[in-house]
Amino acid sequence: MPSNLKPSNLKPSNMKPSNTKPSSKKPAPAPHFDPDAAATGDGLFGLDTRVDDATLVVIPVPFDATTSYRPGTAAGPAAVLEASKQVDLEDLQYGPIWKAGFAMLPIPKDIAALSKSARRTAEPIIKAGGATPGNRAHAKALDTVNAASERVHGYVARETERILDRGAIPALLGGDHASPFALIAELSQRHRGMGILQVDAHADLREEFEGFRWSHASIFHNVMTRLPDVGRLVQVGIRDFGLREREFVENSKGRVQCFYDQHLRDRQFKGGAKGSWSAICKDIVKALPKDVYVSFDIDGLTSDLCTNTGTPVPGGLTFPEVCHLLETLANSGRRVVGFDLCEVSPGNKSREEAGEWDANVGARVLYKLLGCTLKSRGLLR
Question: What are the structural domains, with CATH classification, of the chain?
Answer without folding.
Answer: 52-376 (3.40.800.10)
